[in-house]
Design brief:
Elements: E1 6-10, H1 19-31, E2 34-38, E3 42-43, H2 50-66, E4 72-75, E5 78-79, H3 88-104, E6 109-114, H4 122-137, E7 142-147, H5 159-172, H6 177-191, H7 204-207, E8 208-209, E9 214-215, H8 217-232
Parallel strand pairs: 1-2, 2-4, 3-5, 4-6, 6-7
Antiparallel strand pairs: 8-9
Helix pairs in contact: 2-3, 3-4, 4-5, 4-6, 4-8
Length: 238
């Protein structure tokens, strides 16, 4: 790795760090590397509900810079029951904590995307759209995605999710916070009752041509259908 590549280390839940991580950070500092410290506070865990998790999210962000010498901080509030960052509650945490940090500091902050549904499904793309809108409007400089199917299944992530993230984030950059709030509410309302039956989707090998590294016609059709639905909700996707 080059010194300018991002070197990642994780805080432990919640607001903890281990000796091995401190040794890694010390070495990176000595080498003049870019350091990314990440932490995913768990909504519904040790710290409690939405308000408490937002406080923890801000605290872990500040700790990354003041104690661990981060170049930037990667967050990702995650739901203890559903293992996702795109639930209504975790989006509330992410939005409020990022807006507070953005309004009061010049720190570089990022957020991770963990959808409950898998690739090659409209639900997955809608989850991504909701979080991309929120993260952009709340002032994050970097969006990290996407870990589809909760990021726990092998080969269950593709470039089409990142494409949706990029397209929606670009559109959100010109939208007001009130407009984004209304849009996010509409999108989340469309998928939040489907958590128990969320589609697992398909593997990369099933929805991409692995030789040309291009999405299949079916995958493109599902992407276009998801875009059509989002356009009906007022999102002017290309």
């Amino acid at each position: 790795m080059k010194p300018t590549d991002s070197h990642e280390v994780s805080q432990l839940n919640e607001l903890k760090i281990d000796n091995m991580s401190l040794v890694m950070i010390s070495g990176w500092l000595h080498n003049g590397n870019v350091i990314m410290v990440e932490q995913m506070p768990i909504l519904g865990g040790y710290i409690g509900g939405i308000e408490e998790t937002a406080i923890c999210d801000v605290a872990t962000t500040l700790a990354s810079f003041t104690l661990l010498n981060a170049s930037y901080h990667l967050s990702g509030p995650i739901h203890i029951r559903w293992g996702m960052t795109t639930s209504r509650e975790t989006l509330q945490v992410a939005g409020h904590s990022a807006a507070a940090i953005d309004a009061n500091t010049d720190l570089l902050i990022a957020n991770q995307f963990y959808t409950i549904s898998g690739p090659c499904t409209e639900m997955c793309l809608h989850e991504i759209a909701a979080q991309a809108l929120l993260d952009t409007a709340s002032g994050r400089e970097l969006l990290s995605g996407c870990a589809s199917a909760k990021g726990v299944l092998e080969d269950y992530t593709t470039g089409m999710e990142a494409r949706m993230l990029g397209e929606v984030a670009t559109l959100a950059a010109g939208m007001s916070v009130d407009e984004v709030n209304r849009m996010v509410h509409k999108i989340v309302r469309g998928y939040e009752r489907r958590y128990l039956t969320a589609p697992q989707g398909r593997t990369f090998q099933e929805c991409y041509n692995v030789k040309t590294v291009l999405p299949t016609k079916e995958h493109l059709k599902i992407y276009d259908s998801a875009c059509d639905t989002l356009r009906l909700l007022g999102l002017d996707l290309p």
